[in-house]
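Here comes an entry:

___
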Amino acid sequence: MKKIIKFVMVLGLIFSFAPQFANAATFEEKSQDVTAYTASQYKTDGKARLNASGKAPRIGDVAVKRSSGLPFGTIVLTSSPITVDGYLRESFAVQDWGIDPELSTYAIDIWFGFCRTNAFTGTDATLLGCSPSDVKVQSAFRFGQNKMDLTFYTRQNLVLDNLNSDDSSPGSMDLDVSNSNDSVLGNIDLESLN
């Protein structure tokens, strides 16, 4: 009996040290579209602009197609560094939806920061409250549309849940990478994932 209890305890210890990504899906998609976007901090009605996950957009966020099934918090690694707000980044977190339907299935749209505080309402205003002459709009425009290989780190069951859920409620994910080998996730802001 003591041997069985000892065996169960050892087995429990082994499984308690299992990698944090044991339930994670890691997959790579080749030659995906990568674009950039910006918006005013406040909408024309004076309300703060939030992304689809209900949070204020932050550098390091990306939007994806809702039909991709990727839950919020999914980590995306690009095949080469991208300069965003003066810093080179290779990792991003899915926090928004809304990409041109003509782009590739797993395309990402990188948040380049707020173009201005209050929404621009001139005749040439963008849909997201910017003026074409805003510096961030020009930066996003110069970035253009690129093709990159992308690697995604997400939990498998949440990808399926997002694909099967109705479109009225945003998906979410609580991803804890604090005890994992996060060298590959070096510049992602973990607080943005909670």
Notes: The chain has one domain: 24-178. The CA atoms of residues 25 and 117 lie 38 Å apart. Confidence is low (pLDDT under 50) at residues 10-22, 157-194.
